[in-house]
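Issue 218. Parser rejects a valid record. Input:
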Amino acid sequence: MQVSRIIAGALTAWLAAGAALAQAPADKSAKPEKIQRQEENLGITAHIGAEIGAIYRFDTRYEGLKGSPYLVKGWNRADLITNDGRHVKQLPVRYDVYGKRLIVRKGQDSIWVDKTSVREFLLFDAPSPSLPARYERRFRVFADAPDADLRGSFVELLHEGPQYALLKLPRKKVLKANYKDPYAADRPYDQLLDGETYFLRRPDGSVVEVKASLRSLAAADEPLGQKLKAEAIRTKVTGKSEAELVDLLQGVDKR
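Output the parser choked on:
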């Protein structure tokens, strides 16, 4: 045991010191041998106590990970479309945004779906907070993402027209625990935070990151910007929200 090794080491050092003192010339001012031994023994005891305290001291404040890695809570029905065009309907699924995994429930088991075999899925009864009236959400493998690290993710198709598409990529960011430093935020847990990034697919097939605003879309593509502004004037829609942008894009495609 650790304590035994400490005791053995301390005793060896003490015995070596005693042997050296025995060989040294006698000193008249030295303390009586009995008192000196008592003080040395007290020093050994204090040393052992400090070592034991260092070994068995634990910080138990960390509370683990909070938040969910999934797109929505629980299991939801979905239709899957495979790469070879087959439709598999009404499967209970959940999408792990953080791990980029589509999970299907089969009986009591959960199975990870091979992403290379699924092209897209249509999720039912899980409306987006920004589109509360929408109960069918279409997700597709983000194969043309501008960043290669995102190409294994599923991106939501908010609008897909003959020329332009507005895409929303759900994301999960880990906020690390912060509680050990003197000026820490007193957050003894890691936390998964929800987020999203928007992309515009243009007529030439290129995909660029945008914000969910009319101004950002107009800056990303000038011809589209002119059409969107004209549609906004006609419908008196500002285009300052995700839902309004979808309405404007659908109006542009219809004209």
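Fixed in the parser; the record now loads. The mean pLDDT is 78.
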